[in-house]
């Protein structure tokens, strides 16, 4: 699997998934979601992009950029359809998706970009920095986590979002993943088992480095 210091430009039209996040740590739920999108949307590849400083969160809880990047690399290295980029680590300040997408579109000008986000992020998308400009660049992809009621809420929001055309979003109904990175961090602090929640290499890296233990 390519490990990209910067994104690699390819002079060919592709369908590319962009999966950003703190990945603090990356876990099996992230990977299952990416694999589902890859299959459902017939993507050519998915690029995982760890955020530097998330715009809507404090950075106090984050482990280092290098640690998060290495965990994503370890988690995805066996899947040739997954790539990793540290593009956001080369910019100063907070990580805005708009800026990242400009870089992606510059390198892949003829490709279709699919932006993968969580349901909570989707339902607050109107608050994102330059969200209308983002809508011009991508197809939004999200998934209902709980039930049909939540899925309907996502559809209702999509229909109400100014600038979002009906052919520019994809709402999936994948199997529910009932754990989060914050819960994994809490389990580590409490000395609980996490081997079923993260890839083996990531689990080994966390304990080798003593991450999240204090």
Structure, explained:
The chain is α/β, with parallel strands linked by helices. Helices cover 37% and strands 16% of the residues. It is built from 8 helices and 7 strands. The protein has helices at 28-40, 65-76, 97-107, 119-122, 131-137, 148-160, 181-189, 200-209; strands spanning 3-4, 15-21, 45-50, 82-85, 112-116, 138-143, 169-172. A 7-stranded parallel beta sheet has the order 1-4-3-2-5-6-7, sandwiched between helices. Helix 1 (28-40) links the parallel strand 2 and strand 3 (45-50). Helix 2 packs antiparallel against helix 8. The two termini are 32 Å apart.
Percentage of residues in helical conformation: 25-40%
What would you call the quaternary organization?
A: single chain
Percentage of residues in DSSP E strands: 15-25%
Order of helices and strands: EEHEHEHEHHEHEHH
Mean pLDDT: 90
Shape: globular
Q: What is the number of helical segments per DSSP (H or I, 4+ residues)? A: 8
**Low-pLDDT segments:** 1-6
Described by strand count, sense and barrel closure, the largest sheet is: 7 strands, parallel
Order of strands in the sheet with most strands: 1-4-3-2-5-6-7
Q: How many extended strands?
A: 7
Distance between the termini: 32 Å
- Radius of gyration, in angstroms, nearest whole number: 17 Å
Structural class: alpha/beta
């Amino acid at each position: 699997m390519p490990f990209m210091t910067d994104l690699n430009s390819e002079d060919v039209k592709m369908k590319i998934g962009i999966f950003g996040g703190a990945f603090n740590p990356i876990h099996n739920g992230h990977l299952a979601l990416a694999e589902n999108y890859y299959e459902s949307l017939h993507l050519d590849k998915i690029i995982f992009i760890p955020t530097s400083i998330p715009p809507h969160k404090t950075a106090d809880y984050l482990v280092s950029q290098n640690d998060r990047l290495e965990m994503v690399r370890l988690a995805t290295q066996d899947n040739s359809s997954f790539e990793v980029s540290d593009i956001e680590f080369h910019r100063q300040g907070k990580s805005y998706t708009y800026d990242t997408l400009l870089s992606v579109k510059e390198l892949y000008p003829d490709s279709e970009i699919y932006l993968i986000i969580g349901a909570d992020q989707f339902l607050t998308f109107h608050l994102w920095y330059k969200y209308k400009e983002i809508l011009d660049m991508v197809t939004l992809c999200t998934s209902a986590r709980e039930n049909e009621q939540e899925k309907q809420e996502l559809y209702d929001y999509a229909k109400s979002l100014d600038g979002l055309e009906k052919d520019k979003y994809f709402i999936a109904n994948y199997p529910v993943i009932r754990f989060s990175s914050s819960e994994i961090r809490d389990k580590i602090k409490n000395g609980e088992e996490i081997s079923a929640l993260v890839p083996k290499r990531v689990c080994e890296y966390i304990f080798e480095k003593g991450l999240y233990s204090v």
